[in-house]
Design goal:
This is C-type cytochrome. 44% of the residues lie in helices and 3% in strands. It has 5 helices and 2 strands. The protein is elongated and about 85 Å long. Bound molecules: heme C.
Length: 131
């Protein structure tokens, strides 16, 4: 017996195997969205943003009833280069901004909401999904 070259059917099965592996990899990424904020959890962030009623002053996609207009809409906050009119939009700055806005920008009208560092991290994780 000599080895035969692979026929059409085996080639098809090999391709299908490769395709399935890709689909599985993609599904993995979709299922668990990775946060760009160290220690921040996107789902918890959404819950907290809702609970603290940030939507009283902001339009926030994905947050029910968040339609306030005292502050800027947060639709594309994950894409902006600067927040609050001039602060570089990095995870560290965002977490600090959420906790103590007045310390980041004296005189700002955004009030401190009494967030813990951890809560602010979760919230920032959610906000960065808005792009
Ligand atoms: C009382 C109204 C009010 C509440 C409540 C409030 N904000 Fe704000 N927020 C503002 C205002 C006003 C600004 C603009 C501040 C500035 O530029 O000085 C702002 C700015 C921001 C920015 C920067 C936006 C940009 O485009 O630069 C983010 C992010 C943000 N707020 C998130 C939150 C989150 C999250 C909460 C809930 C924990 C929250 N805010 C609660 C009024 C509010």
């Amino acid at each position: 017996m000599r080895a035969r070259p692979p026929n059409q059917a085996t080639l098809y099965l090999r391709r299908a195997g490769v395709a399935l592996a890709c689909v599985a990899a993609l599904a993995g990424c979709e299922g668990e969205r990775q946060s760009v904020v160290p220690g921040g959890d996107i789902e918890q962030g959404l819950r907290l943003v809702t609970q603290y009623q940030c939507g009283a002053c902001h339009v926030i996609p994905g947050v029910q009833g968040a339609a306030g207009d005292e502050g800027p809409a947060l639709d594309y906050i994950g894409r902006l280069s600067y927040i609050a009119g001039g602060i570089p939009n990095s995870p560290g700055n965002m977490v600090r901004w959420l906790r103590v806005p007045h310390a980041v920008k004296p005189g700002t009208e955004m009030p401190p909401m009494g967030l813990t560092e951890q809560e602010a991290r979760h919230m920032a994780a959610y906000l960065y999904t808005l792009r």
